[in-house]
Hints:
Elements: E1 9-19, E2 45-53, E3 59-64, H1 69-82, E4 88-92, H2 101-109, E5 113-117, H3 128-140, H4 148-161, H5 168-171, H6 174-177
Parallel strand pairs: 1-4, 4-5
Antiparallel strand pairs: 1-2, 2-3
Helix pairs in contact: 3-4
Amino acid sequence: MAQTAPETVLLAVDEASVYLQATTMAVWAPRGHPVIVRRDPGRAKTHFYGGLNLKTGTVTVLEAATLNAITTVQYLQQVLTTYPDGPVLLLWDRAPWHRGAAIRDLVAAHPRLELVEFPTAAPDLNPQEHVWKATRQAVSHNHTHQRLVTLAARFVTHLTTTQFTSSFLDQYGWNVVCPRSK
């Protein structure tokens, strides 16, 4: 069982959507020179799967046109490729695209992958939510990109080049049960 092995990779996984239409947040500006954020009138968007490695702070990310069981399987395959050795414990919510025969078949074919669901309506428990918030603040709030592909590339770059810290393992006693190897 992945939960009792100290070499287990622990991933907190979630999905997010990024819209070309900028979201705004307060910023400082010189008096009399307000910041102007041009907003795209459309609703062009893309989706991302992201998995925060709770031990290293790195994120495994996949951009997807839709959120469904097929793209979820693609993401899980990417996780297995990224972490080819040892058990992987994946923590995620109860989204409808996390279910289905394709996902059950993949998990059955890869017994080193274990899936655990967060409680219903508890996004505050998922550390990946904090990653999305930090990345949106850094990339998509007040942005001036005119093309979704450019915004999405910046989003991925921020996710893959930033190390995110989380107190999840300490908070829930994982490091007492399975101390980190040196």
